[in-house]
Design a protein that fits this description.
By secondary structure, the chain is an all-beta fold. It is about 0% helix and about 45% strand.
Length: about 400
């Protein structure tokens, strides 16, 4: 991927709308006054752009140049006043003031920070250092790393249940997930697939074919799809017991279960790269296989306004398939005109904001009508991830 021309940028450079508006006081005031809860933050992969979209007006209202290299994703603090951007090639999490869009701090991490997530109580940020097999824990009040924990196998995502003293880490390089005590910030234990073991006798999953995520539904039930074994590990985080393992399509990516929408029916959609299908998991019903995915379906979105629909992001097909999760059928296709990497659903469920990376665009989809109602062109080079306050956020 292209490297950022670091000499051409200055830390905390603030751009509004376009280069011609650099330093414009009126636009700066507009951004500062915008509702911090009604925003979408777009992270570009091949440039250092952090682009801000106002979800009330559907306008780009600001941009920060982070000086990050291969930025991966962003996470917000509990008050939505600060944004943390993981820079994979500079080994740091970059702190951006959400009101001024200025870089205010750079926090060193382990090697290759990618995904990061905020604990439910807002007191802890967990950063996945994939290259050094570590997790960095950051205090989002002081913006300092308070612990760098070893003992993982290419940690890929950490998730937190609705309650309880533990967090769960997906090891994409192994056949187990890892439970971390959030009080001591030490590994409590490992939860392995049937037929395998955790450390010290763990078997590694070659070429990152393990667990990409450990998504936890609003009931506290964890779903972790294992790519190589084509099984979803289902675990009750409240009772701390494995419930079952479910066979799904070949080479599954993620079982999409983690949403902020508590009223949604519990139906998990699992893209299977091996046969370009999605596996639909529904309680007390056999797994259904639907021709709704492709070899790189990196996201599935839901909305409480259409509780029986799932939106599957198809990177290779350059479209989004709409699945009826009650009937187990494909009911629509939304052409995107480019590679759909990831998306986020707004907190009210109205919009799905998706990156179209190959065309350097972001689209806004009406979840009720399935129509693209807005396209943004000025969002950096290869937009990669979307973060919305209170929304359905994920990465890949």
């Amino acid at each position: 991927m292209n490297q950022v021309n670091r000499s051409a940028l200055s830390v905390g450079a603030f751009v509004i709308g376009s280069a011609a508006a650099l330093g414009c006081a009126t636009d700066s005031d507009k951004t500062a006054a915008a509702d911090l809860t009604h925003r979408a933050y777009i992270i570009a992969r091949e440039s250092d752009d952090l682009t801000v979209i106002d979800l009330d007006t559907l306008e780009i209202i600001g941009r920060a140049h982070t000086l990050g290299v291969q930025n991966h994703m962003a996470e917000l603090n509990a008050t939505f006043t600060k944004l943390y951007v993981d820079s994979e090639q500079t080994d740091e999490s970059i702190v951006v003031d959400a009101t001024t869009l200025k870089v205010v701090k750079r926090i060193p991490t382990g090697a290759g920070p990618t995904h990061l997530s905020l604990s439910r109580d807002g007191t802890l940020l967990a950063v996945m250092n994939e290259y050094s097999d570590q997790v960095s824990f950051i205090d989002p009040e002081a913006d300092v790393e308070i612990k760098r924990l070893d003992g993982f196998n290419t940690p890929h995502f950490m998730r937190f249940p609705p309650s309880g003293p533990y967090g769960y880490v997906a090891n994409i390089g192994a056949h187990h997930i890892t439970r971390v005590d959030l009080g001591s910030l030490e590994i409590a234990d490992h939860i392995a697939l049937d037929g395998f073991e955790g450390p010290p006798n763990a078997t590694m999953a070659p070429a990152e074919t393990g667990f990409a995520d450990v998504q936890i539904d609003p009931d506290g039930v964890l779903y972790a799809a294992h790519n190589l074994q084509a099984r979803v590990l289902v675990y009750d985080t409240a009772r701390q017991v494995k419930m079952r393992e479910v066979e799904v399509g070949p080479n599954p990516w993620i079982a999409y279960a983690e949403v902020p929408f508590t009223t949604l029916p519990r139906r998990q959609v699992v893209p299977a790269f091996g046969d370009s299908t999605v596996s639909l998991m529904r309680r007390d019903l056999p797994v259904a296989s639907l021709a709704a995915g492709d070899m790189q379906s990196f996201g599935v979105n839901y909305s409480p306004l259409t509780p029986n629909k799932a939106f599957v992001m198809n990177r290779v097909r350059n479209d989004i398939k709409v699945v009826d999760t009650a009937e187990g059928t494909v009911v629509g296709t939304i052409p995107t005109g480019g590679t759909t990497e990831t998306a986020s659903t707004t907190a009210d469920g109205k919009w799905i904001v998706a990156t179209v990376s190959s065309s350097n665009q972001v689209i806004v989809i009406d979840a009720m009508t399935h129509q693209i109602i807005k396209t943004f062109d000025d969002v950096g080079v290869y937009p990669w991830s979307v973060t919305i306050p209170g929304g359905q956020n994920y990465c890949h």
